[in-house]
Design a protein that fits this description.
Protein name (chains A, B): Universal stress protein A-like protein
Radius of gyration of chain A: 16 Å
GO molecular function, one term (chains A, B): AMP binding
Order of helices and strands of chain A: EHEEHEHEHHE
InterPro entries (chains A, B): At3g01520-like_plant, Rossmann-like_a/b/a_fold, Universal_stress_UspA, UspA
Pfam families (chains A, B): Usp
Number of strands of chain A: 6
CATH architecture of chain A: 3-Layer(aba) Sandwich
Domain UspA (chains A, B): 29-166
Strand order of the largest sheet of chain A: 3-4-2-1-5-6
Oligomer: homodimer
Distance between the termini of chain A: 43 Å
Helix content of chain A: 25-40%
């Protein structure tokens, strides 16, 4: 088959990341970290200049009218100037991934949007047109899924770009498997 | 997160490939070629030594008792010794992909199994434990899917490894979109 589109300079991989439901402070969820580590170890590998990672964190709407932040975070220093109020809203989550990317040497961007995670992830994937969307999932059974819902299933079905869903490793499942 | 498993030497990507339903002779389907090109352009990129591609072609059972071939094809020369009877059964399909891999310089293996494609792909993914399974899909609408069924949806749902389904590009859709 002929290559019908020009070879882009880098492969852009979008990762939807979220906070852990276990710890009080906004750490990355087990699934998010698993999806990130899989992307680095299995896809990026040593070819750090061939990829760019796009981290999206979707916040549930806040009563006090918190609005979308259009800021894009690409360097660890970008987080030093953030306001305290933003710190409590998941920017530490993005700082974790941006710092890891800089340690590894892979380019990245990170941003936050507000809304229903599954809808916003698909909307942002449509806007950003990544080559691949990576989402973590808790690997719940059918009964737990009915209760907990899964963002990953929705994205696999509705996102316009290729999507891969990375299951949490069984050994990493917390006491309550709905937690993450 | 700590890396809990040793960094494997290569990322093993399994591609389920099938024959075109359009042409008389066993060429690769449009979806299969699209899934392959996406894997090379977006994932492997220039890092050819970091990946190994595993091509599985599943044949529908034949009346004359054709059995699983346990042969593995890894080099273009491997196809020179094949019997004529095998040529008509999709080995040319594998030869296409193995030859392309050798042109590109990425290691590969290819093999054929008999049975129901969706079941066999998931069984072989379980046996081979690839890091990623790539399947092509025709990008059919909901109504066409009910009639045509889709192997990719089944694999996304049932395979134990991460799965990415690569939609056929709209410009490549044949006259009858159920064809491929």
């Amino acid at each position: 088959m002929e290559t019908t589109e020009p070879d882009a300079n880098v492969t852009r991989i979008m990762l939807a990341v979220n906070e852990s439901s276990i710890k009080g402070y906004p750490h990355a969820s087990i699934s998010s970290r698993g999806a990130f580590e899989w992307t680095i170890q299995k896809i990026v590998r040593s070819n750090t200049s061939g990829f760019k990672l796009l981290f999206l964190h979707v916040q549930a709407p806040h009563e006090d009218g918190f609005e979308d932040m259009d800021s894009i975070y690409a360097f660890p220093e970008d987080f030093k100037t953030m306001k305290h109020r933003d710190q409590t809203r998941g920017l530490h989550l993005l700082e974790y991934f941006v710092t890891r990317c800089h340690e590894i040497g892979v380019a990245c961007e990170a941003w936050i949007k507000e809304g229903d995670p599954k809808e916003v992830i698909c909307r942002e994937a449509k806007r950003m047109q990544p080559d691949l969307l990576v989402v973590g999932n808790r690997g719940l059974g059918p009964f737990q899924r009915v209760i907990a819902g899964t963002v990953s299933e929705f994205c696999v079905k509705h996102a316009e770009c290729p999507v891969v869903s990375i299951k949490r490793r069984p050994g990493e499942t917390p006491q309550d498997p709905v937690d993450d």
